[in-house]
Amino acid sequence: MAVFRALFSRRTFYAVTGSTLLGAGGGYYYLNSGPAYPSSSKETRRPPPPWTPPSREEMLNRLKATAPKQARSDPEEEEFDLLIVGGGATGAGCAVDAASRGLKVALVERDDFGAGTSSKSTKLVHGGVRYLQKAVMELDYEQYKLVREALHERRIFLQTAPYLSAMLPIMLPIYKYWQVPYYWAGCKMYDVLAGKENMESSYLMSKGKALETFPMLKSEGLVGALVYYDGQHNDSRMNTALIMSAVKAGATVANYCEVTDLHKGETGKLNGARLKDNLTGQEWNIRAKGIINATGPFADTLLTLDNPSHKPIVQPSSGVHITLPNYYSPRKMGLLDPATSDGRVIFFLPWQGNTIAGTTDSPATVTREPRAQEEDIRWILDEVRHYLAPDIKVRRGDVLSAWSGLRPLVRNPGASSTEGLVRNHMIHVSENGLVTIAGGKWTTYRAMAEETIDVAVKEFALESKAGKCVTDQLRLVGSDGWSRNMFIGLIQRYGLETEVAKHLSDNYGDRAWTVCSLASPTGANWPLHGIRIHPQYPFIEAEVRYAVRNEYAQTAIDVLSRRTRLSFLNVRAAITALPRVVDIMAEELNWSSSRKAAEIERAIRNFETMGLTSDEANICANLKEVSFAPLISEAKNQRRRIPVEKSGGGV
């Protein structure tokens, strides 16, 4: 009787009920935690409705339509609300934001879209573990705000461009027992700060499990590892998606279009600019109610046009990365060294089938084509060796590619090194009305754009049809009809190799259907379509045609470096693919033989900055069997520039 009474007492009832609810709640949380992949709102087994953007020629005509007021029937007819200068992440983000609010937007970029810093990042969408450490150790509230903002934006980033980004587990190897609680507490604080924005929680890993997951890791002295999650993306493809999303929202965009002068009205406020088409040399004026300077590390150049006596606001930092073969890292796990020999941080990440290692952080001077210096490459290799098993010999010859990107850090006169600067952004409005957005990083591009357009709307008294910013809910071009299983439909309809189909799905989203429609038959029993531009990589010839017709690619470098990522994955493979890419672009853009030769020369000069150890003669040796090799030699001897000729074709 006493046992019966104890089992069915009120206290027992409360204990059992509480335990059940706790277990159920915990189970529900566990089953529903982790990355939330938004389901597609459209059918993914068949092509989405076709959409062809206006050609580059049409875009230039829109920009040229601005005329003096007395020559127009409507004084406001062709005046843009905003002229955005700079086609990187920040500028493209501003264009998407402004166009989605219903503003009349023009964006110009003197090089290709994303040709600068925006295509040369670490490929991470991260909150900034390093900044969190500084926020705690130095009680720096600005660093803390930077981490909070970045974690919030990370979630939005992953949801608005799901096919271009994903969560990646990153391992911190632990070699001292006291580091276990230290790193665990830091990563848990990272999780707590993320709050509802958190996509995955960090966890500890035993030594055995760490070596099983990352077998090339140095085992001597290893205690265990801690794994946390951050986002990873394809930066230049993301940049292209932003540009095309802005176009779809009504923006007018043009690459290779440079601002050579700024115009002021009677009040001294900016009201337009002088533009130059760098492919033809043609110049014209454009009118705009407001101008936004989103030129990254080149922000001071435009500020000088506005005010020759201005004080510089950008302090550039060079970040060098290298690409190694895929056997240097697991396919789904990265590695972080939180304290290198000189106190910096280095990442070791799987990306696009290869491995990225970097980055350096040193003061730099602004240049349009920064070179990856040999000492930086060797420093990265030395740091990588510290974490790999002694039987793995990391050689200089294993470096497939290397690049240097200029970070547009906001200047802090009190900082002794660029590593001590915050990657935060700053918005500055000059006396003449030039709005400059400087600093920041890929993760927070959307928030930076929102803040910038808010300032511009207020500064220039613009009327926004849509009201406030909507980009936190706006899915980018390629996202609506995409799902993680879409590649199966591509295989079934076009007879593609699985690797190629996955690549197209993960880099073009639902636009992959259009890419496939341009694919030529292989002439083989399998695959039926999809001729590769290099046998070791999944890039196909149809991507070259698509880049020209639908993504404003104008040079071979545009295709090999930014529409595809071949030169970043393997610069020697890019050199091998170069002649065929030039041939295809010549068909699309009606290039002459001299233009083809100049394209190859220009591309090789660019590739020489990407970690090659061979000299120019050895590079040219790779092209001996190319039918127009004599033209290459002729172009090199005369050091020709790209000739002034009108591009034909669909862009």
Topology:
Layout: H1 2-7, H2 10-32, H3 56-64, E1 80-85, H4 89-100, E2 105-109, E3 124-125, H5 129-137, H6 141-160, E4 165-174, H7 179-194, E5 203-206, H8 207-213, E6 224-233, H9 235-248, E7 252-255, E8 257-264, E9 270-277, E10 283-293, H10 299-306, E11 314-324, E12 334-337, E13 346-351, E14 354-358, E15 362-363, H11 374-387, E16 401-410, E17 425-429, E18 434-439, H12 445-459, H13 486-494, H14 498-508, H15 512-517, H16 541-550, H17 556-563, H18 566-569, H19 571-589, H20 593-607, H21 616-621, H22 629-638
Parallel strand pairs: 1-2, 1-10, 2-7, 4-12, 10-18
Antiparallel strand pairs: 3-6, 4-6, 5-6, 8-9, 9-10, 11-14, 11-15, 11-16, 12-13, 13-14, 17-18
Architecture overview:
The protein has 651 residues and is of the alpha+beta class. Among the domains are: 60-118 and 237-313 and 422-459, FAD/NAD(P)-binding domain (3-Layer(bba) Sandwich), CATH 3.50.50.60; 159-232 and 315-411, D-Amino Acid Oxidase, subunit A, domain 2 (D-Amino Acid Oxidase, Chain A, domain 2, 2-Layer Sandwich); 532-638, Helicase, Ruva Protein, domain 3 (Orthogonal Bundle), CATH 1.10.8. Helices cover 39% and strands 18% of the residues. It is built from 22 helices and 18 strands. The protein has helices spanning 2-7, 10-32, 56-64, 89-100, 129-137, 141-160, 179-194, 207-213, 235-248, 299-306, 374-387, 445-459, 486-494, 498-508, 512-517, 541-550, 556-563, 566-569, 571-589, 593-607, 616-621, 629-638; strands spanning 80-85, 105-109, 124-125, 165-174, 203-206, 224-233, 252-255, 257-264, 270-277, 283-293, 314-324, 334-337, 346-351, 354-358, 362-363, 401-410, 425-429, 434-439. The strands form 2 sheets. Strands 3, 4, 5, 6, 11, 12, 13, 14, 15 and 16 form a 10-stranded mixed sheet that branches. Strands 1, 2, 7, 8, 9, 10, 17 and 18 form an 8-stranded mixed sheet that branches. Strand 17 (425-429) and strand 18 form a beta hairpin. Helix 5 (129-137) runs antiparallel to helix 6 (141-160) and helix 16 (541-550) crosses helix 19. The radius of gyration is 26 Å and the shape is globular. It starts with a helix and ends in a 13-residue tail after the last helix. 49% of the residues are buried. The model is unreliable at 28-32 and 638-651 (pLDDT under 50).
